Amino acid sequence: MKPPLLLIGQGSNDDADSAEFGRFVHRLRCRLDQRAADVSGGYLERATPRVSESVASLVARGHHRLVALPLSLNRVGTEFPAEMARVQERHPTLMCDYGRPLGPDPRVLALLAERLNDAATEMPKLRPLELVGGRPRLRSVDSAAIELPAHIEPGETAVVLVGEGSTDPAGNAEIHRVSRLFWETHAYDFMTVETAFVSVTPPGVPGGLERCRRLGAKRVIVVPYLLFAGGMLERVWAQALAYGAGHPELDIRCAEVIGDCETLADVVIDRYEEALQLVP
């Protein structure tokens, strides 16, 4: 039997994020069950189960080796190695192999392109909008409120790729790198792909939108570089909506997150198999 896969999330207080993380763990469990490998998930902070609890459960089930994989699009911070060091102190006979973060894998970029295209080909926008629970929602309107947008060419459309934001300059630089990769591989017909961040570091979502407006964009599509829906996505949408309220001439659309899907599971399974092959 292969060693189990431990998916490690950062953790948040958001129930929607935790629920989607749980569904993704279940998807991986169903997939890897065919390869006789157990799958578990744990969080570094704020949510349960914590990594230490998940590891203790695996050890109690008789596992003496595991593959730990940070379910992250970004660089791994100091929390991950520090937590795994504490885990091995508690379980000194446990062997841990480590998988690489997902990062800008070509399949991840392709998923972003799908989300971008979905947002670009949405039905005509309805106005007015309001925030409900932090997310943009349509009010009840009659047919007179339907706005048919004029035809806008891809060359008049800009993209804002939004990362979480970090105090780590190298991590923020990685998001800029992803924007460039995404533009060159999937969005070259668009005017530009600008980078923005949800919090901590500038530019924020309004700053990214403002740059696109000054460059002459008629439409801007906000693409969250996020794995799962939740509070972070709601903040992206809320910031975009607030900016759009002051610039009604600009067609602003918001794409969905990457989300729990089979392609994302393919990437994780490849990272898992890669970690096993690196073991001498």
Automatic annotation (TrEMBL):
> In which organism is this protein found?
Nonomuraea guangzhouensis
Superkingdom per UniProt:
Bacteria
Q: Which residues form a coiled coil?
A: none
Keyword terms:
Lyase, Metal-binding
Q: What is the lineage of its organism?
A: Bacteria, Bacillati, Actinomycetota, Actinomycetes, Streptosporangiales
What is the official name of this protein in its record?
Answer: Sirohydrochlorin chelatase
Q: Does the keyword Nucleotide-binding apply?
A: no
Q: Which Pfam families match?
A: CbiX
PANTHER family, per database record: SIROHYDROCHLORIN FERROCHELATASE, CHLOROPLASTIC
InterPro entries listed in its UniProt record? CbiX-like, Sirohydro_Cobaltochel/CbiX
